[in-house]
User: What shape does this take?
Amino acid sequence: MSEIKVVTNILQTNDEITAKNKKILDEKRIYVVNLMSSPGSGKTSILEKVIAKLKNEIKIAVIEGDIYTTKDAERIEAQGIPVVQINTGGACHLDGDMIKNSLDSLNLDNMDLLVIENVGNLVCPAEFEIGEDIKISVLSTTEGNDKPLKYPLMFEKSGVVILNKIDLLPFTNFNKEEFYKDIKSLNANAVTFETNCIKDEGIDEFCSWLKDKVVEKRK
Amino acid sequence: MHEVSIIENTIKIVQEKAEENNLKNVSKITIKIGQLSGVMPESLEFAFQGMSKGTIVEDAKLFIEKVDAKAMCDDCNITFEIDHFNKLCPNCNKFATNILSGYELYVSTIEGE
Assistant: This one.
């Protein structure tokens, strides 16, 4: 009985499709964001603010991942930009194949920034590459500052971490010092922002950072 | 994690490799899993027991080998062990971005006849 070397990545099917997606998106020089967080932390609210602020300067499109509904996609559509809804029908994350199908229904020649809003979940979305340039994760103050250490992979892999609902800070026991210490231990190079979508706090700063990235990729 | 779909993919990969090598049954499968990958070996065992039935790998023993997470400090040129919460170079204390291992998730070898 002989041993046969296999050495095949178990997620290779996803990786192969994702590599193809990435190639197409890179050729069109579209900056791609994989936006992740737990449900209710404010991904869609931040996105609405970003779109309102930047839609006259850059061409934005959105892919909305949701298990069952089109609620988020309707909110984005109201902003007057192209949006594709993916209903995963129970699956807890988006994968390369779902993105591939969505790209077919978007006009990639008329796009500078593609935001893919993942399914609200702090675990699984972090494990699947979907062709993004950057992973951005959102944590809201009401969730507690212990979450980065409890769900390390997502925060470890994110190039940007946004702390949202900063206006609610006085009503929670969220410890910002510990939060930043933990983020630093997981991912010392993560860029961080603090936002509040009710009063537009921190949105300008985040938009300015994002626009620079989009412009850099267009060059 | 997605232990069921991981096992589903594993069985598919093993079936293809077994066919390629004219194996009638597979007795041993070794998969490698990095410490940082977020995959639970116990759940993989459980999924394997359920999903291997009626396939070429039904009688195979699944070996799960863990791969230590290691990084390299590009300044000091040394390699050291890391985990999610500590990626600092033991020599200069700088955060290591050059991660050498820890995210593995692959089928390593199979045995059969």
About this structure: Chain A is about 35% helix and 20% strand. Chain A has one domain: 12-218. Residues 73 and 104 of chain A are 17 Å apart (CA to CA). Chain A touches chain B through 27 residues (CB under 8 Å).
